[in-house]
Amino acid sequence: MTAVKKLWPLLTATHRYDKSISTHGRGAGQMIDAPILAYLIETANGRILYDVGCDYNKINDPALCTQHYHAANINVPAMQEEQRIPHHLARLGLTPADIDVIFVGHLHFDHVGGLGELKRCGCGAEIHIQHDELEAARGGADAACFADDFIAHGPFDIRQGEYALCSGVSAISTPGHTAGHMSMWIELPKGKPVLLAGDAADLTENLDDEIAPGGCWRHQYDQAVDSIRKLKRLAHEEDAQVWPNHDFAFYRGLRAFPGWHE
Question: From CA 99, how far away is CA 201, in angstroms rounded?
Answer without folding.
Answer: 26
